[in-house]
Design a protein that fits this description.
The protein is mainly α. The chain contains six helices and two strands; from the N terminus they run ααααβααβ. α1 packs across α2.
Length: about 150
Protein backbone atom coordinates (compact mmCIF):
# COMPACT_ATOMS: atom_id res chain seq x y z
CA UNK A 1 0.00 0.00 0.00
CA UNK A 2 2.69 2.46 1.07
CA UNK A 3 4.90 1.40 -1.82
CA UNK A 4 2.19 2.01 -4.42
CA UNK A 5 1.48 5.50 -3.03
CA UNK A 6 5.18 6.37 -3.09
CA UNK A 7 5.52 5.06 -6.67
CA UNK A 8 2.55 7.18 -7.80
CA UNK A 9 4.04 10.26 -6.09
CA UNK A 10 7.42 9.61 -7.73
CA UNK A 11 5.69 9.23 -11.11
CA UNK A 12 3.85 12.55 -10.61
CA UNK A 13 7.10 14.29 -9.66
CA UNK A 14 8.87 12.88 -12.69
CA UNK A 15 5.99 13.69 -15.08
CA UNK A 16 5.00 17.15 -13.79
CA UNK A 17 7.94 18.65 -11.88
CA UNK A 18 6.78 22.30 -12.00
CA UNK A 19 3.23 21.51 -10.95
CA UNK A 20 4.48 19.36 -8.08
CA UNK A 21 6.90 22.13 -7.02
CA UNK A 22 3.99 24.57 -7.00
CA UNK A 23 1.88 22.14 -4.94
CA UNK A 24 4.73 21.65 -2.47
CA UNK A 25 5.21 25.42 -2.11
CA UNK A 26 1.48 26.00 -1.55
CA UNK A 27 1.33 23.18 1.02
CA UNK A 28 4.43 24.60 2.77
CA UNK A 29 2.81 28.03 3.03
CA UNK A 30 -0.46 26.60 4.36
CA UNK A 31 1.23 24.35 6.90
CA UNK A 32 3.63 27.17 7.84
CA UNK A 33 0.59 29.31 8.66
CA UNK A 34 -0.82 26.59 10.87
CA UNK A 35 2.55 26.14 12.60
CA UNK A 36 2.26 29.71 13.90
CA UNK A 37 -0.57 28.53 16.10
CA UNK A 38 1.50 25.83 17.83
CA UNK A 39 2.32 26.43 21.48
CA UNK A 40 4.60 24.73 23.95
CA UNK A 41 3.80 24.81 27.64
CA UNK A 42 6.12 23.79 30.42
CA UNK A 43 3.48 23.21 33.08
CA UNK A 44 3.52 19.99 35.02
CA UNK A 45 -0.24 19.54 34.69
CA UNK A 46 0.05 19.34 30.89
CA UNK A 47 2.07 16.15 31.30
CA UNK A 48 -0.58 14.44 33.42
CA UNK A 49 -3.40 12.33 31.94
CA UNK A 50 -6.69 14.15 31.45
CA UNK A 51 -9.83 12.69 32.98
CA UNK A 52 -8.05 11.24 36.03
CA UNK A 53 -9.81 12.37 39.27
CA UNK A 54 -6.47 13.06 40.97
CA UNK A 55 -5.36 15.24 38.06
CA UNK A 56 -8.67 17.11 38.13
CA UNK A 57 -8.18 17.80 41.86
CA UNK A 58 -4.62 18.94 41.17
CA UNK A 59 -5.82 21.29 38.40
CA UNK A 60 -8.50 22.65 40.75
CA UNK A 61 -5.82 23.45 43.34
CA UNK A 62 -3.64 25.13 40.71
CA UNK A 63 -6.60 27.23 39.51
CA UNK A 64 -7.71 28.27 43.01
CA UNK A 65 -4.27 28.94 44.46
CA UNK A 66 -2.00 30.88 42.14
CA UNK A 67 1.12 30.02 44.13
CA UNK A 68 0.56 26.26 44.24
CA UNK A 69 3.84 24.86 42.99
CA UNK A 70 6.10 21.98 43.83
CA UNK A 71 9.75 21.79 44.67
CA UNK A 72 11.43 18.44 44.78
CA UNK A 73 14.81 18.14 46.46
CA UNK A 74 16.63 14.85 46.13
CA UNK A 75 19.26 14.17 48.78
CA UNK A 76 21.52 11.18 49.11
CA UNK A 77 23.43 10.23 52.23
CA UNK A 78 23.05 9.05 55.78
CA UNK A 79 19.61 9.42 57.33
CA UNK A 80 20.65 11.71 60.20
CA UNK A 81 22.60 14.01 57.82
CA UNK A 82 19.62 14.12 55.43
CA UNK A 83 17.29 15.11 58.29
CA UNK A 84 19.72 17.79 59.45
CA UNK A 85 19.95 19.12 55.89
CA UNK A 86 16.14 19.20 55.56
CA UNK A 87 15.83 20.98 58.92
CA UNK A 88 18.38 23.56 57.74
CA UNK A 89 16.87 23.95 54.25
CA UNK A 90 13.19 24.34 55.22
CA UNK A 91 13.48 27.76 56.95
CA UNK A 92 15.73 29.05 54.17
CA UNK A 93 13.17 28.12 51.53
CA UNK A 94 10.36 29.67 53.54
CA UNK A 95 12.32 32.94 53.81
CA UNK A 96 12.86 33.26 50.04
CA UNK A 97 11.42 36.46 48.61
CA UNK A 98 10.93 37.77 45.09
CA UNK A 99 12.60 41.17 44.72
CA UNK A 100 12.55 41.28 40.91
CA UNK A 101 9.62 43.70 40.73
CA UNK A 102 10.40 45.84 43.79
CA UNK A 103 11.84 48.83 41.90
CA UNK A 104 9.03 48.78 39.34
CA UNK A 105 6.34 48.56 42.03
CA UNK A 106 7.94 51.33 44.10
CA UNK A 107 7.90 53.60 41.02
CA UNK A 108 4.23 52.80 40.44
CA UNK A 109 3.46 53.54 44.09
CA UNK A 110 5.30 56.86 43.86
CA UNK A 111 3.30 57.81 40.74
CA UNK A 112 0.06 56.88 42.50
CA UNK A 113 1.05 59.04 45.51
CA UNK A 114 1.69 61.93 43.13
CA UNK A 115 -1.76 61.45 41.57
CA UNK A 116 -3.32 61.43 45.04
CA UNK A 117 -1.52 64.68 45.90
CA UNK A 118 -2.77 66.30 42.69
CA UNK A 119 -6.35 65.13 43.34
CA UNK A 120 -6.17 66.38 46.92
CA UNK A 121 -4.89 69.78 45.76
CA UNK A 122 -7.63 70.11 43.12
CA UNK A 123 -10.50 69.24 45.37
CA UNK A 124 -12.28 66.51 47.22
CA UNK A 125 -12.48 63.40 44.99
CA UNK A 126 -12.56 60.78 47.71
CA UNK A 127 -13.79 57.90 45.52
CA UNK A 128 -10.87 58.26 43.10
CA UNK A 129 -8.41 58.69 45.98
CA UNK A 130 -9.76 55.56 47.70
CA UNK A 131 -9.34 53.60 44.45
CA UNK A 132 -5.74 54.79 44.13
CA UNK A 133 -5.08 53.88 47.80
CA UNK A 134 -6.33 50.34 47.16
CA UNK A 135 -3.99 50.08 44.16
CA UNK A 136 -1.11 51.21 46.37
CA UNK A 137 -2.02 48.56 48.96
CA UNK A 138 -2.01 45.83 46.30
CA UNK A 139 1.36 46.97 44.95
CA UNK A 140 2.84 47.06 48.48
CA UNK A 141 1.86 43.40 48.92
CA UNK A 142 4.00 42.55 45.90
CA UNK A 143 7.12 44.21 47.33
CA UNK A 144 9.39 41.55 48.87
CA UNK A 145 6.76 38.97 47.94
CA UNK A 146 7.34 35.70 49.79
CA UNK A 147 7.61 32.88 47.30
CA UNK A 148 6.27 30.15 49.59
CA UNK A 149 3.41 30.50 52.04
CA UNK A 150 3.06 26.86 53.19
CA UNK A 151 5.43 24.04 53.89
CA UNK A 152 3.98 20.56 53.47
CA UNK A 153 6.03 17.40 54.01
CA UNK A 154 4.44 14.04 53.40
Amino acid sequence: MRETILKKLANLHASYPWRMLLIVIVMTLILGGFSGQLTVTMRMQDLLPSGDPKVEQFNKIIDEFATATSIIVVVQGEENRIKAFADDLAPRVMDLIDTTKNAENKEKIERLHQKIEKLTAKGNKESKIAELQSQITELQKEINFTLFQHWIIK
